[in-house]
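User: Sequence in, structure out. Go.
Assistant: Echoing your sequence, followed by the structure tokens.
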Amino acid sequence: MRASRLSLLGLCVALTSSVFAFEPLPLAQQGGVSQVMLTCTGCHGEALMGVAAAGFPRLAGLSADYLSKQLYDFKAGKRFNPYMQQFAAGLSDQDIQSVTRFFAALPTTQYARPSRASAAEDLGARLALRGAWERNIPECVSCHGPGGVGVGNTFPPLAGQPALYLVNQLRDWQKGVRRNDPNDLMGHIAKALNEEEIQAVSDYFAGLPVGGAR
């Protein structure tokens, strides 16, 4: 491991050790993935399923291409987070390819997959499943798939992501702090949402039940 990576590893451990236990991922070592990847467990949890209380997202099972784009966007300053920008700056192309492929192959929880035909009784469900077309807000599932499970390499999963993470991303799009999606689609949507709606739709996807319930 290069000295710069060791320094970066130490920095990430120091930033997170006061809140989260930092432990390596045995599977990463078995798979020969660069050890720089191990810093991710400090914020995103040992299973990389996220840490809800802190608003750190799950990485397990997300598309490798989507994750790669996010890391490159952090490196290029197109997406902003001081810790992630520092971390991504120390990664080589090979690191990014290896780490994101490993993340994508990790097992992850399966969530319910309500569709546009499912009942939508509260505000969060209505936005997720029906949208608010009178304000040009499409339903989330139209892009992110039934239950917000993610579609392809462009639309990531929403199901099971921490509500605080989703709230923070919508606020960032709303403020123009985050603007790394195609045609600023999420920026337009987020700007049309009020704070109650942002919280409601984030709670909805964070609270989807595990398994096949509708």
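User: And one key feature?
Assistant: Residues 3-16 form the longest helix (14 residues).
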